Amino acid sequence: MEEVRFTPLLDKSRVEGHKQWLDFFYRGQVTPLIQTLSQVANVHVIQLWGQITNALYPQWQAELADVSDPVSRTRINECFQMLKCEIKTSAFGLRKNPFAIKQIYIEHPTIPEQKVWMKAACCLAYRLEGEIGYCYECPRLKEADTVVRREKC
Q1: How many CB atoms lie within 10 A of CB 126?
Q2: How far apart are CA 31 and CA 90, in angstroms?
Q3: Which pLDDT belongs to residue 147?
Q4: 89-120 pLDDT, tens digit each
Q5: Backbone angle region of 93, left / alpha / beta, with phi > 0 → left and psi within -120 to 50 → alpha
Q6: Vertex 111, ends 69 and 101: CA angle to 5°?
Q7: Strand pairing of 105-107 and 115-117?
Q8: What is the phi/psi pair of residue 53, to 5°?
Q9: How many whole angstroms separate alpha carbon 153 and alpha carbon 150?
Q10: Which residues, 6+ apart, have CB-to-CB distance to 46 below 8 Å?
Q11: In 3D, which of 56, 63, 75, 45 has the Cα closest to residue 117?
């Protein structure tokens, strides 16, 4: 006897509703906050959006790691792809979606067989008082500087 399998199709109204909610949230809440912070702190909006991206990608990976069933993993990936690819850029007040980035991985500082994600934007920790300097995952570091930092670890 042959097996019959049913694959749940995406509910178009649910997907459209989710897109509308994301658009509303980013256009009405996050973008005005980013624009205000940019003016007050004298930091470019792209830099501030980068901080959200820096937090979002690891959160996405953590969410995927927390679930084992394929349906949940698929739903998490679909939602993330929707945010990256299907929300109008005007919702972010930018020409480009700040979450649609190319992920770059570099060698882990202490475990050579592992990779770590290079941040989407500099977190500006080097500007803090003290001798913090640039983070290992900072996109502003040149490859030679990353090698030196890795050797120090």
Answers
A1: 13
A2: 10
A3: 85
A4: 999 999 999 999 999 999 999 998 999 999 99
A5: left
A6: 60
A7: antiparallel
A8: -60, -40
A9: 5
A10: 94, 98, 121
A11: 56
